[in-house]
Specification:
It is a single chain. The chain is an all-alpha fold. The chain folds into 2 domains: 4-84, Rna Polymerase Sigma Factor, Chain: A; 96-175, Arc Repressor Mutant, subunit A (Orthogonal Bundle). It is built from 8 helices and no strands. The radius of gyration is 19 Å and the shape is elongated. The termini are far apart.
Length: 176
């Protein structure tokens, strides 16, 4: 049986679908990290895969396909953010069936976390997303980003420290 990438290059729809299914979470994580919300991340996924499938014949096969897709997703997400930056929609909280005070506290905590993540530098935000939302190993993240594992560890450490600092500050303001 032929290589799935080669089959996808030849227009095999099942092979294209398999590539999409295998790498969708990675592309979504990049879109979410850069754009900060699910609807825009979904758009980044769609546009990234369209670009990737159109230029699949040009991929030289050097390195992993996930690294190539990551680069496409990052460029696409950055372009998308520049063109269509939106603030996350303020939807109804499904926790509203709780006691009103608890629902408000949960919504405020979730918004504080989202805000703290949005405020992280891009590389720290990407590493945090790939590690904790997509479940990637440090070695996988290093390969995807084309850097050393130590750089990934450093970015992750700094991201976690900044998140803790931001959330501790938010908790202090809430108590005051």
């Amino acid at each position: 049986m032929a290589d799935p990438i080669e089959r996808a290059r030849n227009g095999d729809l099942e092979a294209l679908r398999a590539l999409y299914e295998e790498h969708r979470n990675l592309v979504y994580a990049v879109g979410l990290s850069v754009c900060g919300n699910g609807p825009d991340a979904d758009e980044v996924v769609q546009e990234s895969f369209l670009r990737a499938f159109r230029s699949l014949a040009e991929w030289r096969g050097e390195g992993k396909i996930s690294t190539w897709l990551y680069a496409i997703a990052l460029r696409t997400a950055l372009n998308w953010k520049r063109r269509f930056l939106r603030t996350p929609p303020a939807g109804a909280d499904p926790a509203a069936v709780e006691a009103p005070g608890e629902a408000v506290d949960r919504a405020e905590s979730a918004e504080a976390l989202r805000g703290a993540i949005r405020d992280l530098p891009l590389q720290q935000r990407l590493v945090l997303t790939l590690r904790h939302l997509d479940g990637r190993s440090l070695a996988e993240i290093a390969a995807i980003q084309g850097c050393a594992v130590g750089t990934v560890k450093s970015n992750l450490h700094h991201a976690m420290s900044k998140l803790k600092e931001a959330l501790d500050g938010e908790a202090e303001r809430a108590r005051a």
